[in-house]
Design brief:
Blueprint (H helix, E strand, L loop, with lengths): L21 H32 L4 H10 L10 H7 L2 H21 L10 H27 L5 H29 L7 H19 L15 H11 L2 H14 L3 H8 L2 H6 L3 H23 L13 H8 L4 H10 L2 H16 L4 H30 L1 H25 L11 H31 L6 H30 L1 H10 L8 H9 L5
Helix pairs in contact: 1-2, 1-5, 1-6, 1-7, 3-19, 4-5, 4-7, 5-19, 6-7, 6-16, 6-18, 9-12, 12-13, 14-19, 14-21, 15-17, 15-19, 15-20, 16-17, 16-18, 17-18, 17-20, 19-20
Length: about 525
């Protein structure tokens, strides 16, 4: 009898098993994206609330957000996850690592307010582990699913991702219930989080194995490095892209360090927006030039730059990347200003939490599932433009609400009519946001090569995350200059520049599937 080759990935060195059914696959999609949403909820809900109640200054809490850049630059170590395979092990290890971080904080929760440096190291490790879990989860899901399953899978993904974030909010509730007035039981909340992370990691190990794929070319990394030395334009381009992504760090760090030149310009529009966007676009343009050079094929099998070459060398890819930046521009620009609008309209935190968060969660899940069902039946391309139109309608609804509802001082009662207007706009925004997101995520998965799914999807999602961050910053400036009503109307029209690029998107989707 022949022996099994030893150079195959670990997940392929096992006897053939019965393929998982569609129903079982969707169960694993739901679980994996719950596990992906939970750490983000902890980072944005539990950590800042604990720190503020413990007396940590707002400036220091603001620096916490810089640790979230791990989710933006995750494509840097995505090739490592892709090359070593065994994505279930990566996910389980990342969950176990995050559980250890939470267990350490449960042991000494007061350390976050004591000025010690080690909690910050733990929080940084938490974000890197969470980003690694995202990388492995996205790559695993794309490899496991067929293209005609992307729609429903992304509906479940949207819903259970938000359920995971909501579970983090439940730990805030638990901290209050298990503690005393004025003294929440933060240790217990972190302990519950650690247990949940361990359960997630244990369950992941029982997920179906990854489909086999051909082994990597031997010596690809060494060959890639040799080719890079002859093509330094790649390194310059990547450096510019990274500079654009990390530029937001410069302002807060400069203020914390007391750098006068940075402090003088950190609030200007060109420093906060034009410079990072310019660096990103220049780096991306240089990468396209480098990818289309005849010598770029020497990098095509490389573990790091091979994914960049594969993406950027495709015909029409530059237009598709611009589409990724623009498709949810209007939605993202308005999204960051919705909660401030509620506050200025006189709504209490309880009202905001009940309708905008809890009811909105159910409607966004329903929208994601409905959008996924439509995409699976109508196709990704039709789903993009039809559901994109539906997504834009919510911007009109919020514009109408902003013109109807007057600015109200805190503590004043909001009339039932005005409450109904805002609640209706919120319901429409939650439902249609789920529709558009489901179609968009199916599109990203559809243009990703299954052979390089982990790295390519990390690159594409990082580009989208960058556009969302810049749009959110621009939203604050827009409301300051125009007011809520006029700005929300403008965001409706910002939804349509991406439609000019739909022909390139269609050619990409109708072409040969990426390998």
């Amino acid at each position: 009898m022949g022996t099994m080759p030893s150079n195959l990935p670990a997940d392929t060195m096992r006897p053939p098993t019965r393929p998982p059914t569609r129903r079982s696959l969707m169960f694993w999609v739901a679980l994996l994206y719950f596990s992906e949403g939970l750490p983000l909820g902890l980072f944005f809900d539990l950590f800042p609330v604990h720190m503020r109640q413990a007396g940590v200054g707002t400036a220091d809490i603001g620096l916490l957000s810089l640790l979230g850049l791990a989710w933006t630059v995750k494509f840097l170590w995505a090739p490592l996850v892709d090359a070593w395979r065994g994505h279930r092990l990566w996910m389980a290890a990342a969950n176990a690592g995050m559980a250890c971080v939470l267990a350490a904080l449960a042991w000494q929760p007061e350390a976050l307010s004591a000025g010690a440096s080690w909690p910050w190291v733990l929080l940084a490790a938490f974000t890197v582990l969470s980003a690694t879990n995202d990388i492995a989860t996205d790559g695993y899901t794309i490899e496991l699913l067929r293209k005609d399953q992307y729609g429903v899978a992304n509906g479940l993904r949207i819903g259970f991702y938000r359920v995971g974030m909501l579970a983090a909010g439940g730990m805030l509730v638990a901290a209050g219930w298990l503690g005393t007035p004025g003294q929440p039981a933060w240790g217990a909340a972190y302990g519950l989080g650690a247990v949940l992370m361990l359960l997630n990691g244990s369950m992941v190990l029982m997920a179906p194995p990854q489909p086999p794929r051909p082994p990597r070319v031997a010596g690809a990394a060494a060959k890639e490095w040799s080719a890079l030395k002859a093509q330094p334009l790649w390194l310059l381009a990547l450096g510019l892209v990274l500079a654009g992504l990390l530029w937001p760090v410069l302002g807060p760090v400069g203020k914390a360090a007391g750098w006068a030149p940075v402090m003088a310009v950190s609030g200007t529009w060109w420093f906060k927006g034009a410079v990072p966007v310019g660096l990103m676009m220049l780096g991306a343009s240089l990468m396209v030039v480098a990818a289309r050079h005849p010598r770029a094929q020497a990098l095509a099998e490389g573990p790091v730059f091979g994914a960049w070459v594969g993406l950027l060398a495709r015909p029409g890819m530059l237009a598709v990347l611009a589409f990724i930046l623009l498709f949810k521009l209007g939605d993202a620009a308005m999204g960051f200003m919705v909660k401030p609008f509620w506050v200025d309209a006189g709504f209490t935190p309880a009202q905001i939490g009940l309708v905008s968060v809890n009811v909105g969660l159910g409607l966004s899940i329903a929208g994601g599932l409905a959008g996924g069902w439509y995409v699976d039946r109508a196709g990704i391309f039709k789903g993009l433009w039809v559901l994109g139109l539906a997504q834009a309608l919510s911007n009109l609804a919020y514009a109408w609400a902003a013109w109807q509802v007057p600015h109200t001082e805190p503590g004043m009662q909001v009339s039932a009519y005005y409450q109904g207007v805002v609640y209706a706009a919120s319901a429409l925004e939650s439902f249609t946001g789920g529709l558009g997101t489901g179609a968009f995520l199916a599109f990203l998965m559809g243009i990703t090569s299954k052979q390089r799914a982990t790295t390519e999807y990390a690159i594409l999602s990082s580009i989208f995350a960058f556009s969302r961050a810049v749009a959110g910053w621009a939203g604050g400036l827009g409301v300051e200059q125009m007011g809520y009503g006029a700005f929300f109307l403008l965001t409706f029209f910002l939804s349509f520049p991406a439609y000019a690029l739909l022909p390139a998107v269609r050619r990409m989707l109708d072409g040969d599937p990426p390998r």
